[in-house]
Amino acid sequence: MAAEVTNPLPGMPLVESPFFERLFPPADTDPALLAVARQLRQDGFAVIDFPDPDFDRRAEALCGRLRDRFDWAAWRERGQVGRMQDLWREEPEVRAIATNAAVIDLLSRLYGRRAWPFQTLTFPVGSQQPYHSDAVHFSSAPERFLCGVWVALEDVDESNGPLVYYPGSHRWPILGLDQLGRNRPEGKPSQIASHEACRAPVAPPGVEPRRVHARRGQALIWAANLLHGGELHRDRARSRWSQVTHYYFDDCLYYTPMGSLPLAGQVQYRTPLDIATGQPVPGSLNGRPLDRDFREGALAGDWRPLRMLRRALAWRLGRRGRPAAAPEGE
Ligand SMILES: O=C(O)CCC(=O)C(=O)O
Ligand SMILES: [Fe+2]
């Protein structure tokens, strides 16, 4: 973004903002960045070459080390899939991919806030996941400050479970419990999130899903609300090693939508760990940290115990026959 450009909507990712043309002026924007920004804006995903000259060596070393940790017999016999969550804690290659500085810089430019990785998923075979939006599993306020970066650790084509997307679906409304007709989460949020209703019931007419064939080292960035999933992995003699890293962005509140009804005062906040720093991030909004006062609804300078004391005093004075001074603005 050029220095002199002002952004009237800082609570929207730059790449999804109605002011996109102003925020990425073609004359002042690096052409490579502009191409990725346009693709991400239009389709909800963008394809890049993973910016790591050491990628092939890294991928080979990683897959070689992880090979024995997956139950290949169960996969071949029953099609049992598996995912390895947060391997970055023990595998330096997973961590190196998740914290790649060029990827973090690119995401930060696209969104207008610093990106940080908070979760990795390593897939030995195709996930075969039904269509879903990641914004149902983890979301942010302001919304859409979340993205996934998927990278092929080996070649992926139609026989080993390619990713599938509905281009443009990232612009659809984000689903929450209210749209699903529920007042309470039933069971664990993870169970709710895998509920049928959270997945795209139907594709809108005219929108064709796209399958992504990728070479090792090709990566995809997808927007928070893009409808995506994993295609059937047909050839069980093959693997489909890949890594997904999920990123949040600075100065947001982070929460689990399937355990929350924000306007009823129920918010299941998250305190994700920034993989790059190893520190938990409790969240903030417009520079204000999510402390107890903020959670309990007190606005700037309005301290709840003081407000209760004022109410109690007004009530006592009222009982003694004096006019009760009702606090203003409540
Ligand atoms: O790898 C896949 O097939 C899909 C993974 C996915 O949906 C995710 O990690 O958010
Ligand atoms: Fe996903």
Helix content: 10-25%
> How many structural domains does the protein architecture include?
2
CATH architecture of the largest domain: Sandwich
- Distance between the ends: 42 Å
CATH class of the largest domain reads Mainly Beta
Overall mean pLDDT stands at: 87
Put simply, the count of helices is: 9
**Helix- and strand-based class?**
alpha+beta
Low-confidence stretches: 189-195, 321-330
Major β-sheet annotation: 6 strands, antiparallel
| Strand order of the biggest β-sheet | 1-8-5-10-3-2
The CATH topology of the largest domain corresponds to Jelly Rolls
Q: Write down the secondary-structure element order.
A: HHEHHEHHEEEEHEEEEEEEEEHH
Written description of the protein model:
- Helix content is 24%, strand content 18%.
- The protein is of the alpha+beta class and 330 residues long.
- It folds into two domains: 14-289, q2cbj1_9rhob like domain (Jelly Rolls); 303-330.
- The strands form five sheets. The protein has a six-stranded antiparallel beta sheet. A three-stranded antiparallel beta sheet has the order 7-6-9, with no helix packed on it.
- It is globular, with a radius of gyration of 23 Å.
